[in-house]
Amino acid sequence: MGIINLTPDSFSDGSQLGRQGDDGFRVSLDKTLLRAETMLAEGAAILDIGGESTRPGAAPVSDQEQMDRVLPVVAAIRSNLDVCISVDSSSVAVMRAAIAAGAEFINDIRALSAPEAVGLIAESEAAVCLMHMQGQPGTMQQAYRYDDVVTEVMAFLKARVDACRQQGIARSRLLVDPGFGFGKSLQHNYRLLKDLPRFAALELPILLGISRKSMIGAVVGRPPQQRLAGSIAAATLALKGGASIIRSHDVAATVDAIRVHCAFHDPESAVVHEE
């Protein structure tokens, strides 16, 4: 899953795909489509498009601003590229508009907790990833508490899965994400990574967003743009722990890691890719 941030303030790549002017941040459709084409060529199967930063301390963005940033990009990618389109939003209005524009996947850091969100997805054909977050982006890293982070995150995700199933969303459309960096300490994040195999009990695909995050930076002592090696190491450990989808800023390197992992796991199915 390649990350396409249409924001001026994302922690790693904010403002790369647009410009900040007197009238606010405006997305460059040409730059964004080129980024999407590049990620697809590098091996991305899903493109995750977000119009609101959810980094720690981020300010909320209105539904209309999110739609102004995201919907033209969804339409352009749908018209030009054969790839699964995901939209990263917790807003019911944004979800509805994105699905109508061609998105097939909703990536929700709030696990469809907004009123009417579960019903909207139930009425659609979209897949959805339910993520765990303690608190809200603006303050989530200021105060968090767990007695047992793995048990509590699993219990939350199971409850959200049950809520979705009760309203008619098929299990085949559900994924889960432990929410690395969302209301968790460094130790909590690495405990979740170490104990990721326990999440197999949920019997759903696991999507993991770990790319360039502070849990990598804190260990390697490097800024976001220099965390590739650490991110690939974490992604490889996540694959070993049972992750099904890796969400990444660095698609080519991550796809290489996935291919090597798959060849190691099943040597007989190793595929030759031409240089």
Write a structural description.
This protein has 275 residues and is of the alpha/beta class. It has one domain (2-269): Dihydropteroate synthase-like (TIM Barrel, Alpha-Beta Barrel). It contains nine helices and ten strands. The longest helix has 18 residues, at 63-80. The mean pLDDT is 93.
Summed up, what is this model?
By secondary structure, the chain is an alpha/beta fold. The chain has a single domain (2-269), classed as Dihydropteroate synthase-like (TIM Barrel, Alpha-Beta Barrel), CATH 3.20.20. The protein has helices at 29-42, 63-80, 92-101, 117-123, 149-166, 186-194, 214-220, 228-240, 251-265; strands at 2-5, 18-21, 24-27, 46-50, 84-88, 105-108, 127-131, 174-177, 207-209, 245-247.
Shape: globular
> From the helix content, strand content and strand pairing, which structural class follows?
alpha/beta
- Secondary structure tally, helices: 9
Q: What is the helix content? A: 40-55%
Q: Specify the CATH class.
A: Alpha Beta
From the structure above, extract its key features.
275 residues, alpha/beta, TIM Barrel, 6-stranded parallel sheet, two-stranded antiparallel ribbon, 9 helices, 10 strands, 15% strand, globular
